[in-house]
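Progress note, project year one: complex with zinc ion.
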Amino acid sequence: MQALISSVLLLASILKICTSSESDWCYQTQVECGSSSCKGPDVWHEVNEQCSKSRQSPINIVTKKTKLNHLLTPLKFTGYQEAFRSTLKNNGHSVTITVPHVATVSEGNLLNTYRAVQFHFHWGKDGGPGSEHTVDGEQYPMEMHIVHMRQDFKNLDAALGDPTGVAVLGFFYEESASSNRKYDGFIEALKNVVESGSNTTIDGISLSNLIPSEGNMTNYYRYSGSLTTPSCTEAVVWTVFENPIPLSHDQLSAFSKLKFHGGKSMVKTFRPVQPRKGRVVYRSGSSVLLASFTLLLLCVTSALGLSQFN
Ligand SMILES: *[C@@H]1O[C@H](CO)[C@@H](O)[C@H](O)[C@H]1NC(C)=O
Ligand SMILES: *[C@@H]1O[C@H](CO)[C@@H](O)[C@H](O)[C@H]1NC(C)=O
Ligand SMILES: [Zn+2]
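Model obtained:
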């Protein structure tokens, strides 16, 4: 009897902890019955009701359902080449870098010029699945978001009040056999921000060094969505690039050595994909498709030409 009562009490206390309503949001991997009581992605709407609205991000991109849009020409970047010095910070959810100089993105049907504010990452565990967007169900090991605000706004908060106030560029990563030397300095600096709330100075990095070469950025997806963390504000024009950035297994694993607020390993820092809810995902005109189409046209015309002479 005594044992029964104490096990009922134990069960009750576990249930109580599991359903307790602590305020801060967290990722699913941090939601652990009995030890943490933060709010995981399933209940982010309790943190901010916008998280349950109808144009949420990330999404799974179903390539067969994307619509080709010829207005999605290559983006124009300014200030991306410029080397800068900034603060790298572990904010307890991710690692973020403030962009201190003027760097902009425009064209590609963006309808305005957007200024880079900060960039950050979402990753898995030791190079395992970790991107936020997925393509035909495939989750890449990591994703970088370069957050831009429309240049006519004073700050990011003001831009978030407009349905097209923010433009985020999303880049996937893939595991490569050799390490990516362009990332050496940045990944080395991660060692200085292991603890939640810590920061370090990084010098001599440029945005163009972190992203693919221009020739590898012509293929991308575009849709209307939201921030992928609370407040989940629906103010984002999303551009998700098709070609991933290569990093070695060790380079990808370096991110898993960071720690969340609370001391757990910072891993699986992604929000699960959200319902598309009738939104159309557009894709840029693929030069590869165009080339094969031209080839096909040539074949058809020459075949027709041949048959005429037969
Ligand atoms: C970086 O950390 C120091 C203390 O460790 C703190 O004084 C400073 O405000 C932090 N800077 C940023 C940008 O968070
Ligand atoms: C695209 O990237 C690959 C390797 O990631 C590289 O070999 C190729 O030269 C790049 N293409 C262009 C057009 O930059
Ligand atoms: Zn993000």
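Residues 8-22, 306-310 have pLDDT under 50 and may be disordered.
The two ends are 98 Å apart (CA to CA).
No further modelling is planned for this target in the current period.
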